[in-house]
Specification:
The complex is a heterodimer of chains A (116) and B (110). Chain A is 0% helix and 47% strand. In chain A, the strands form two sheets. In chain A, strands 2, 4, 5, 6, 9, 10 and 11 form a seven-stranded mixed sheet that branches. In chain A, strands 1-3-8-7 form a four-stranded antiparallel sheet, with no helix packed on it. By secondary structure, chain A is an all-beta fold. Chain A has strands at 5-7, 10-13, 19-24, 31-37, 44-50, 53-56, 65-68, 75-79, 88-95, 106-107, 111-115. Chain B has strands at 4-7, 10-14, 19-25, 32-38, 44-51, 56-59, 62-67, 72-77, 86-93, 98-100, 104-109. In chain B, a hairpin with a 4-residue loop joins strand 9 and strand 10 (98-100). The chains are: A mainly beta (116), B mainly beta (110).
């Protein structure tokens, strides 16, 4: 398809496990974002990539969270030693422009992470 | 830190009504403001993007206005339809990140 694709769609992890969430942005999109959305809340910014460069990671809540986009296309968000408070929907978004504020964002359907 | 507030939190209207959703933000130094729609279990769909230099944008039955100096935006939906039922989110950009409100949950009843 032509949209942003995220996998898995749902992930259940036991507390302490590591998880990896994948995002396939729209082909050719320069900017890629990760957001975290708790139930009943708006999305909260985690990190931003322009091509392969991670230009802003100020929203990552702890050093257990790590994101990469090594070839400037697919991105992976990794969470180490998951905690219950990590339970949320993780949304990936991409935009065509390298100027992240200049073009609309296209969001994937998200990965719902439940930590038990 | 930019704070974005959306009022009302929830709204139920009969089909055919015109309605207004409100968004306010605390820091007027923004690059743009975007309105999104989110259906249950889905990601966000961009509806309208207003650059900071613009006053409004229109798409079909949707019209969004921006008053940057007062920190306000409104989303006007004309002739509402049951298919418009969703959560509407307002987001402002002051840098790389978008700051989102909590959304307005809209139900349009037949």
């Amino acid at each position: 398809g032509a949209g942003v694709s995220q996998s898995p769609r749902y992930k259940v992890a036991k507390r302490g496990q590591d998880v990896a969430l994948r995002c396939d942005p729209i082909s050719g999109h320069v900017s890629l974002f990760w957001y975290q959305q708790a139930l009943g809340q708006g999305p909260e910014f985690l990190t931003y990539f322009q091509n392969e460069a991670q230009l802003d990671k100020s929203g990552l809540p702890s050093d257990r969270f790590f994101a990469e986009r090594p070839e400037g296309s697919v991105s992976t968000l990794k969470i180490q030693r998951t905690q219950q408070e990590d339970s949320a929907v993780y949304l990936c978004a991409s935009s065509l422009s390298g100027l992240s504020y200049n073009s609309p964002l296209h969001f994937g359907n998200g990965t719902r992470l439940t930590v038990t | 830190k930019q704070e974005v507030t959306q009022i009302p939190a929830a709204l139920s209207v009969p089909e055919g009504e015109n309605l207004v959703l409100n968004c306010s933000f605390t820091d007027s130094a923004i690059y743009n403001l975007q309105w999104f729609r989110q259906d249950p279990g889905k990601g966000l769909t961009s509806l309208l993007l207003i650059q900071s230099s613009q006053r409004e944008q229109t798409s079909g039955r949707l019209n969004a206005s921006l008053d940057k100096s007062s920190g306000r935006s409104t989303l006007y939906i004309a002739a509402s339809q049951p298919g418009d039922s969703a959560t509407y989110l307002c987001a402002v950009s002051s840098g790389y990140a978008l700051n989102f409100g909590k959304g307005t949950s809209l139900l349009v009843t037949p």
